[in-house]
Design a protein that fits this description.
The chain has 737 residues and is an alpha+beta fold. Helices cover 20% and strands 30% of the residues. Helix 3 packs parallel to helix 4.
């Protein structure tokens, strides 16, 4: 009989460089798992969080018993060694997957278990360069598993020793379910699915059989996420089980994603697993809260980025009907020394998660061309990963998330079965309209290739507000405008097979220093601590959720200047009525976004109604802008009050494109002297990854079509109004050719 014992308590932690496997240091501190040593320094900015080796110790009493005793570690980042009584039993170079270690050969009555966990920089284990913090720690659960001598295997890439592969017939009414098991020492396996049971012999450690489900109950996404259970049992009493679902998922290059023969428009968000004050050391309840927030927002899909996530998360996606994009942390920079590591991580991802009906595709890499372009070794490794994926799981397609700098004409784009791009026009560069231009051009040029959006987003600190939100101000309002544009793109283009907002939650990127919160990427629709749903969260709810609701935007924008102001409402209802100071003002019919304008005269009580639904907030007129609403206390976007301050007929100004200005030596000198230092500071604030991005010539040409004013708004934090006036005045002295 198998026994599974949770080992989350009674651990001791040591950061001492003298710590080792043979003896617990006297100064080690008690900790409870999950645990990370970077919960604070990995989230506060400065790119100076501790990366090195630390030790975890635990006394382990194991009375003499028959069979075997295994340690199951569900997450130790980024590398781990397991020692028992001073003996090294195993090493594991993957910080995001489950691995198991047979303790039996070194086991005594009383034992010292020591686990060395290391998140040091290395060239042999991914990830090493990316826009998120690489927390160190024993940050998921640890279990002690005892099994009889005859048992299902525990050492096959952390997998369950059981594999379930459903195959639907063409009519979607029946299914053939193949169940396979790998065993040590057994001579027969009893399989059960539903009320059907079959006993089959074991040959060379392997047994399999097929069940027919007629009629089959489909796993049908959020509409009906029905799950079956497959059970396998040995004569010794060892038992394992897996839940699975029967579904058909397909992609059409013109019509997008199909679930069980019907169009099913995928739209959701990506998820990083960490949160404020905890890092990546989360409980099951905290994982569940994240999934609940996605469900509330209306997501029907989630990109679990950029690494294998906790098994409980995949389980929750199965239960709730979320379609999953699963991936490994092969990201940003190709390291030839780590090719074997990418294959190990992909193998563990697929073997451990093959049974989840929620998973649609396996992602081979993310923005892998960003820091170094394409080279033959990188292409060869991706080809090997693609083949490996199809060998391990012929039932699912592969995909890749490409950096927007990658030329769509490059054959590397077509290496995987499906392709997606990470597009940030309207935030990092360019204008919002270039997103649909890019996608439409791709679809027109390659009509037989499915294309999706794997990332897009804009940072927002909910403290920052602006009556005229603009790119680069980190305001909650601009994030709303950005996502309004992107959701309109999605709604009008059924050929997009999926779309993931980046990101569902703010997350730690210790190399960043921007937007008033050092150490954070603030593209989340929910804050790092999960306490504030930014206004853009409710925009997605308006588009995606069937639950009736309405939401008044701008409740954190209390102090407002000017003679009038915009009141915006997000709702999935067909009409919304605005009330001001207890009086009905206006009713609008529309779709998801409702914009009202009202005079601003003093303090106003604002209410929005639609049937029984209502929301309320208070705003007030002030004489001077609230400095707390501005990044750095200043408005670095609206610099000029009069057009004649900018324009001088026949001379350059900040309204001219970077391309035209830099073509004239005198004007180019102005940019090099006055603007380039600010642009360099902007790049540095995005962290190490941004500084290593290589931009191809075609992309640079497109970027250079932006106006000087657009570039300055992009770098608003580092551009003062005085500098804007100075640059414009200098350009106004230079005649156009």
């Amino acid at each position: 009989m198998r026994n599974d014992r949770l080992l989350n308590d009674n651990w001791f932690f040591s950061k001492s460089p003298e710590a080792g496997p043979g003896q617990q240091p006297r100064d080690s501190e008690p900790v409870t798992l999950p645990h990370t040593w970077n919960a604070k320094d990995g989230t506060d900015g400065g790119n100076d969080y501790f990366r090195g080796a630390c030790w975890y110790y635990r006394q382990l009493s194991c009375p003499q018993q028959e069979g075997e005793t295994w340690l199951e570690v569900r997450g130790a980042a980024l590398q781990a060694q397991v020692w028992l009584n001073g003996q090294l039993l195993a090493s594991h170079p993957n910080g995001y997957s489950t691995f198991r270690v047979n303790l039996t050969p070194a086991l005594q009555q009383d034992n010292l278990l020591a686990i060395r966990v290391d998140n040091s920089k290395t060239r042999t284990v991914y990830p090493q360069k990316a826009d998120f913090t690489f927390y160190g720690g024993l940050y998921r659960e640890v279990h002690l598993i005892t099994v009889p001598a005859e048992h299902f295997v525990l050492d096959h890439f952390g997998g369950p020793g059981l594999k379930v592969t459903p195959q639907l017939d063409r009519d979607l009414r029946t299914a053939q379910v193949t169940v396979e098991a790998w065993v040590t020492g057994g001579d027969s396996v009893s399989f059960q699915v539903g009320q059907q049971r079959q006993t089959v012999p074991v040959r060379e450690g392997y047994a399999s059989t097929t069940f027919r489900l007629d009629p089959v109950h489909l796993w049908d996404g959020r509409r009906d996420p029905y799950l079956y259970t497959a059970l396998a049992e040995l004569p010794s009493g060892d038992r394992v089980s897996l839940r699975f679902g029967c579904r058909r998922m397909e992609v059409d290059p013109d019509r997008g994603f199909f679930l069980n023969g019907h169009p099913y428009r995928l739209c959701g968000a990506a998820r990083h697993q960490d949160r404020a004050d905890l890092g990546n050391a989360l409980t099951l309840a905290q994982h569940a809260q994240d999934i609940d927030l996605m469900l509330e927002m209306g997501c029907n899909t989630v990109r679990l980025a950029h690494y294998q996530q906790a098994q409980e998360v995949y389980d929750l996606c199965d239960e709730k009907g979320l379609v999953v994009w699963a991936e490994i942390p092969y990201i940003t920079e190709h390291m030839p020394e780590a090719n074997d590591n990418t294959r190990l991580q992909l193998t563990e991802l697929v073997v451990q998660n093959h049974h989840h009906p929620s998973i649609f595709c396996w992602c081979l890499s993310n923005e892998i061309t960003a820091a170094g372009g394409i080279n033959p070794d990188m292409v060869a490794n991706h080809q090997a990963l693609n083949e490996l994926c199809h060998r391990l799981d012929p039932t699912r397609p592969t995909t890749m998330a490409h950096a927007f700098m990658l030329d769509p004409a490059d054959s590397f784009v077509r290496l995987a079965d499906l392709r997606c791009y990470n597009l940030y026009y309207g935030w990092y560069l360019g204008e919002l309209e270039q997103n649909e231009q890019f996608l439409d051009d791709f679809h027109k040029q390659y009509p037989t290739l499915a294309i999706g959006l794997s990332e897009y987003g804009a940072d927002a600190n909910p403290a920052y507000q602006n009556e005229h939100p603009a790119k680069g101000d980190w305001s909650e309002g601009y994030q709303c405008l950005y996502h309004e544009h992107m959701l309109a793109i999605w709604e009008a283009r059924p050929y997009l097979w999926t779309m993931y907002a980046w990101n569902m939650f703010d997350f730690a990127a210790d190399g960043r220093d921007e937007g008033g919160k050092p150490g954070q990427n603030q593209k989340g629709l929910v804050t790092f601590d999960r306490k504030i749903k930014k206004d853009a969260f409710y925009l997605y709810k308006a588009y995606l959720s069937d639950d009736p609701f309405l939401h008044l935007c701008g409740r954190r924008y209390r102090d407002r200047t000017g003679e009038e102001t915009e009141i915006k409402v997000y709702s999935n209802q067909p009409s919304v009525t605005l009330w001001v100071d207890g009086e009905e003002r206006q009713t609008l019919t529309g779709h998801c976004v409702f914009r009202f304008r009202i005079p601003l005269t003093g303090e106003h009580q604002i209410e929005a109604h639609s049937g029984a639904l209502s929301d309320a907030m208070t705003i007030r007129k002030v004489d001077t802008p609230n400095p707390d609403y501005r990044y750095g206390g200043k408005n670095a976007v609206n610099w000029f009050d009069r057009e004649d301050e900018i324009l001088r007929e026949g001379y350059f100004s900040i309204r001219d494109s970077m391309e035209s200005v830099r073509a004239v030596p005198a004007a180019d000198a102005v940019i090099r002297e006055l603007l380039e230092p600010a642009l360099m500071k902007m790049a540095a604030s995005y962290g190490e990854v941004a500084q290593n991005v290589s931009v191809p010539e075609s992309m640079q040409k497109m970027m250079n079509r932006m106006s000087i004013e657009g570039w300055m708004k992009q770098a608003a934090r580092f551009v003062t109004p005085e500098l804007v006036h100075r640059i414009n005045h200098a350009l106004n002295q230079i005649p156009k050719p």
